[in-house]
Amino acid sequence: GQQLNQSPQSMFIQEGEDVSMNCTSSSIFNTWLWYKQDPGEGPVLLIALYKAGELTSNGRLTAQFGITRKDSFLNISASIPSDVGIYFCAGPNAGGTSYGKLTFGQGTILTVHP
Amino acid sequence: NAGVMQNPRHLVRRRGQEARLRCSPMKGHSHVYWYRQLPEEGLKFMVYLQKENIIDESGMPKERFSAEFPKEGPSILRIQQVVRGDSAAYFCASSPQGASTNEQFFGPGTRLTVL
Hints:
The structure holds two protein chains of two kinds. Chain A is mainly beta. In chain A, 0% of the residues lie in helices and 53% in strands.
């Protein structure tokens, strides 16, 4: 089955620092989704990407859809304590040609020290 | 505008009992998805339903697990004769009918503990 590999697995940063994480796949994706999950809660959609090369921002968050369509990056600028959580990349199965199930990466755990 | 609702939030069952997890999609959404998350792992797809139809159940174990999304009422994920390995967080997501995107919106989850 399809697999998404996220890196790094965890990050420990100081408040105010910028953060970068990425997600790679062995197969092409037509859609990349980035979610954040707080402890004890469900994932919340942060950014959706639909075109290769697309760069999309949502406040302090910026995500890019890689040109090869096999990777995506998420950047968080000027981190704050409430950025703490687990960040997941996700994409639709079968390279994005069918709607339905999402494949998730294993997540990047972000810790922000005040 | 209420989001995806799931209940109960926490469920404790003894081995051999049945677990019923409920999901009400966002208003106007007719597609429902169930995912399972083990501790420190990502979410794994289980089943995709539309009203009264199972579209894709490729991620659901063949035995003891079933799902439905009736014409009226919430979607139900049912686990019969639970075992300790069923302990996990179960998330429901929904998307609008005829969605041209793959965006799915998640509920808060049900955390199942099997004793």
